C-alpha cells in the first residue's frame, strides 16, 4: 500500500447503524461463510437462509462465487493464486457488509485453509463474528 494512503475513521458507530436497520434492536453484523466443493449445496443453503432472515425483517445478503465472478472478481480464474485473491476480495467485501450490520452469507468453494483463516482474521481483527460452515 502507498505510504500516503491513510485509513479514515467513520463518524457513525455500529450502534447507530443498527438503530437504522431492521425490526430488532442491536447490532448483529457478522459473516456466515459456507465452504465446500462445487455442488455441495452452498448456494442453496445460503440463499435459503438469506430468504428466511429477510422474511423476519433481518438484513441479510448472499454473496455467491458464481455471481461475484461476474463482477468484482471477473478478472480472476481458478489458479491457486487467483482463488486466494478471490477469497481475499470477497472477505473484505463481506467485512464491509457485516460492519454495516448485515448478516452476510458468503458461499465460496474456498478450498484452501489459509485463505479461510485469512477471511476470519479480516473479520475478527475488527471484532466482527465469523462463522465457518462446511
Ligand atoms: N475450474 C473450476 N473450478 C471450480 N469452480 C469453477 C470452475 N470453473 C467454473 N467454476 C464455477 O465457479 C464457481 C466457484 O467459484 P468460487 O469463487 O466459489 O471458487 S473459489 O472459492 O475461488 O475456489 C463454481 O460454483 P459452485 O458450483 O456454486 O461452487 C462453478 O460454478
Ligand atoms: N440438501 C440438499 N439435498 C439434496 N440436493 C441438494 C441439497 N442442497 C442442494 N442440492 C442440490 O444440489 C445441487 C447443487 O447445489 P448448489 O447449492 O448449487 O451447490 P454449490 O453452491 O455448493 O455448488 C443443486 O441442484 C441443488 O438443488
Automatic annotation (TrEMBL):
User: Which keywords fit this entry according to its UniProt record?
Assistant: ATP-binding, Kinase, Nucleotide-binding, Transferase
A Gene Ontology BP annotation from the UniProt entry? sulfate assimilation
Q: Name one Pfam family in it.
A: APS_kinase
E.C. code: 2.7.1.25
Q: Report the SUPFAM superfamilies cross-referenced here.
A: P-loop containing nucleoside triphosphate hydrolases
Name the pathway.
Answer: Sulfur metabolism; hydrogen sulfide biosynthesis; sulfite from sulfate: step 2/3
Q: To which protein family does this belong?
A: Belongs to the APS kinase family.
**What's the protein called, per UniProt?**
Adenylyl-sulfate kinase
Q: Which organism is it from?
A: Panagrolaimus davidi
Amino acid at each position: 500500500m502507498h505510504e500516503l494512503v491513510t485509513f479514515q475513521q467513520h463518524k457513525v458507530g455500529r450502534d447507530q447503524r443498527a438503530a437504522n436497520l431492521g425490526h430488532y434492536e442491536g447490532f448483529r453484523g457478522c459473516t456466515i461463510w459456507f465452504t465446500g466443493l462445487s455442488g455441495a449445496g452452498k448456494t442453496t443453503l445460503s440463499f435459503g437462509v438469506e430468504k428466511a432472515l429477510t422474511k423476519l425483517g433481518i438484513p441479510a445478503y448472499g454473496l455467491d462465487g458464481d455471481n461475484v465472478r461476474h463482477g468484482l472478481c471477473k478478472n480472476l480464474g481458478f489458479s491457486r493464486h487467483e482463488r486466494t485473491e478471490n477469497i481475499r476480495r470477497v472477505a473484505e467485501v463481506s467485512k464491509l457488509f457485516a460492519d454495516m450490520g448485515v448478516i452476510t452469507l458468503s458461499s465460496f468453494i474456498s478450498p484452501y485453509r489459509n485463505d479461510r483463516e485469512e477471511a476470519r482474521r479480516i473479520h475478527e481483527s475488527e471484532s466482527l463474528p465469523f462463522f465457518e460452515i462446511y
